[in-house]
Design goal:
- The strands form four sheets. Strands 1, 2, 3, 4, 5, 6, 7, 8 and 9 form a nine-stranded mixed beta sheet that branches. A five-stranded mixed beta sheet has the order 10-11-14-12-13, with helices on both faces. Strands 16-15-17-18-22 form a five-stranded mixed beta sheet, sandwiched between helices.
- It folds into four domains: 23-223, Histidine kinase-like ATPase, C-terminal domain (Heat Shock Protein 90), CATH 3.30.565.10; 228-393, Ribosomal Protein S5, domain 2; 408-539 and 576-604, Rossmann fold (3-Layer(aba) Sandwich), CATH 3.40.50.670; 608-643, no CATH class.
- It is globular, with a radius of gyration of 28 Å.
- 38% of the residues lie in helices and 19% in strands.
Amino acid sequence: MSALSVAQAKYRTEDIQVLEGLEPVRKKPGMYIGSIDSKGLHHLAWEILDNGVDEYINGFADHVTITLHKSGHAITITDNGRGIPVDMHPKHKKTGLELVLTVLHAGGKFGESDSGYVRTGGTHGVGASVVNALSKKLIATVKRDGFEYQQEYAKGKPLGKLQKIGPFRGHGTSIYFEPDDTIFKTVKFDADTLKARLEDMSFIHSGLKITYKNEITGETLEFSNTGGLPAFLAKLVADGQKPSVTEAAFSAIRENGDKIEVALQWTESTEETYRSYANGIRTPNGGTHENGLKSALRKAVQSYIETHDIKVKGLQITANDIREGIVAVLSVFVRDPMFEAQTKQRLNNPEMDSSVDNFVRPALEAWLNNNKTAADAIIGRIILAAKLREASRAVKEEVKRKTPGSRRLSLPGKLADCKSTDRDDTELFIVEGDSAGGSAKQGRNNNTQAVLPLRGVVLNCEDLSTAKVLANRELADLVTALGTGAGEKFNYDGLRYGKIILLMDADADGHHITTLMLDFFFRHAIELIKKGHVFIAQPPLYRVDVGKETHWARDDDHKEEILSKLGNKKYELTRFKGLGEMNYNVLKQTTLDPRTRTLLKVEIDSPTAAHNAFQELLGKEAATRYKFIMEKADQTIAEELDV
């Protein structure tokens, strides 16, 4: 019998697993929360928080409190809504609370009951049960009908029956939960992440009072921004640190039908910035509502240009020219939201494209016509963007006509350049030292991948002028290789590579060098980050061989995760001292080859938070680092310091 037929013979009906209850969530958490890293961890808090906000959206609550407990590993979220029902369900013979917390697709938000939910962020009925499934401990407290009730759970299962604590005046729901540390890479909540989310929500829900309590620091904050979206827009424009084109901003709101609210302003930035929300939930990947806004922007501006017969001297104004520099906040409330997945990153309601377009376009047209000074400044900025685009295109065409040899004139001698001259297809690996550089050069695809080794200690650029930074030979060579210049002389059109990849050792020293390099880009070439060109490679720190199988672990936590799944199987563990110790074929397979590697894209969600982080970690004030170490001493980040 062949090996194939033997394998087929071993596959029987009894081998088929049926996951019941909340088992699917614990088996495949990524399907429900996106990932098991810090982002997935915080998604648990957003799920419970959104349930409280849904009570506010539908007129049943006006206050939400989130408490970060002293351990940093637990959160309590309380709302003063109606309270989850606690009576017995006639069909399922469980209380409403137990159904919501233990059964997938159980809830009162499916639009077929008298629950009172008209608009909600929850649509699948899985949020609370997913949080319960992924928590090693969860305590639900409900106040309603004159009494207080409580029930405790562990990993999705009730530890006892619902307890009637006693009489209580008031109403609401309180959920305390501790994420399961056997599932998540870290269970330490980040205070800044929580605060940023709550502040954003206070703008979107301008009538909602949000209280944040941090038991670690003793801090209590109240978020209640009555300024709504216009105030939120002003904050985003200030955070972007680019001057606005006009003093006045455009804003509009439609209350009838599906509620739509928008605020936007043009700035001198070369980027477009959108913050879109659906039923109070941020949709970072946009969706049909955001598409409708972009369409409205294009149509309104083009109509204004045509109506006022503005001469553009043969320029073809594109949608990108019109939207360049725009900062916009869009919030819609839909009766039946259709999100792309449980993580709700994107809105898919097809009707919202035309709905937003049909509302925003005429409102923006009227605003432009009634604010001619502002409109002229905006149109002037758009025409300038078109001219610069045309000039950039001409430069690119000229570069393409040049020979590959001319492209390499005056480049650093230690740069192993690639053959291709097409920026979109090329990559520059910045590696730590000549030894690692040698391995990378052997393992790369020399048609599209260039390698630049850094020698010696990387300069700390924090608090340094661009002139002082470029006096450093290593960073001057890097800037030359990039072709962009730096600081005030930065020229995006000179960029020679589509991807700039930081490839450092997977240990503490490597992470330190990566941080120093990120600081350089943030302070002296931030457009490369904003335009999505900077990435961090993920080389393995460990190799785990189990028979003929090989597993690669990027860090100690990942290694432990792999070993825990091996059970009693014998394995051989290898720790790489550095990239230079790694066989070039291994480096190619794990880190260089686009088909098998993993890259982390560097993004800036909040320029202010990024500025503060670099100042705290790399600035001249040693006192801030001392404070950071003392405050974070019990957290994973401090535990991993290589002292």
